[in-house]
Amino acid sequence: MFEYLLKQKTQPIGLDVGHSMIKMIQLSPGDNAICVEAAEEEALDRTLVPDSDDWRRYVVERIIAMYRRGGFRGRQVVSCLPGDEIKVKSLRLDTANPAEIEEMVHTEVARRFGLNPDKDEIRYIMAGNAYQGEEVKNEVIFFGIENNRVVRHIALLEEAKLVPLSLDTVPCALFRCFQATLRRREDKDLVSVFVDLGAQYTTVIIGKGQEIAFVKQIPIAGNALNEQVASRLGISLEEAAALRARLCGAEASQVDSETRRAVIDAMTGSIETLAHEISLCFRYYAVTFRGRRPAEAVFAGGEAYESALIDVLRRHLGVDIRIAEPLRGYDVSRAKFDRRRKPQMCEWAVAVGLALKGMELNQIQNPSLAEIEVPV
User: Would you state the pLDDT for residue 250?
Assistant: First the structure.
């Protein structure tokens, strides 16, 4: 009976407000699979300055319209803090004492990143033993954000008539999205790599078993590629983004070969730099943790459909690359997904991870609505 009541309870909405898209998704536990009860996405106006008053009004209006249109139930939401406002850094500490680590992270480390330990939000994940020559140290993944940024994000959610249940980060939401797959594998030392190719950042997460071991945000992503295409072809950013979208979809054959070549040439330098940065992440992990090299990397995010980007990454990284399918095995019959152009739906990974966190919180406890939780 208790199990039945849990299934009937309205689950929190996962809300991913990115730099180019807004995604909302609501899940529920079914008998044989997790069900997608509602899902909506909408493109953001690229001409608006992020976090400006006009941008905030626009986002609030879009969220309210998406909520009404999508048939969502309940107002509780798990949302993602903006990636460009969070400071994320892997750190190597000399001490293994939990109290000393807590003290160091909240004082020395926080101040190093310009944060006030008395009022700003500071979290960290213990990543494991790190090797520096013959010395063994502790690797810690630091997350920090100014308190006023958190307050502004909560205010935006409340303006959209939503009730924030918890806040999360892109790396943690992405990793959670794929944890169910990892649970089915017996090897606790399995090395997994997840890469989110977004609009503003590329986020690399390396996990060992069920734990995150490494996180890095690289400031090369879709917006940078759009800027280079716009500059090379003498067109606007909106036109560049639309042209790249056409080249990734069914309309690619309608773009002449000269234009296609010009687009690829414009992006090549940044794509190769990005591939090099991701390969350095692999190398850092192998040296720091003396773990085995990953056999594959799973790519998510809206830019993962860019074939030119994926082709270069395959050549440079030397591992198999798989496009994520975050909703594989889910019952999506109730949602209005158009999967004709993007059957993998890899751009939904972060939103799904946020909704999954909402389900976990709903079933385990009834946390304070003011609670702020950054890493899992």
Answer: 64
3-state secondary structure of 223: helix
Tell me, yes or no, if the pTM score tops 0.90.
no
DSSP 2-70: HHHHHHHSPPPEEEEE-SSEEEEEEEEE-SSSEEEEEEEEEE--TTSPTTSHHHHHHHHHHHHHHHHHH
Q: Give tens-digit pLDDT for 76-92.
A: 999 999 888 899 988 88
State the CB neighbour count (10 A cutoff) for residue 257: 7
Distance CA 24, CA 254 (A): 32
Residues in the chain: 376
- Write the DSSP assignment of 103-152 as a string of letters: HHIIIIIHHHTT--TTTSEEEEEEEEEEEETTEEEEEEEEEEE-HHHHHH
**Which is nearest to 352 in space by CA: 78, 19, 81, 134?**
78
> Average pLDDT for consecutive 10-residue bins of the chain (376 residues)?
47 94 93 90 89 95 96 95 88 84 88 90 88 80 94 96 95 89 63 90 89 92 92 92 81 81 90 91 84 81 85 84 92 80 87 94 55 39
Question: pLDDT of 1-28, one tens digit each?
Answer: 334 334 447 899 999 999 889 999 999 9
Task: Give the CA angle between residues 309, 81, 236 to the nearest 5°.
Answer: 45
| CATH number for region 2-224+268-364 | 3.30.420.40
What CA–CA distance (Å, rounded) separates 172 from 209? 14
**Residue closest to 354 by CA, chosen among 142, 123, 158, 167:** 167
Spatial separation of the C-alpha atoms in residues 376 and 212, rounded to whole Å: 10
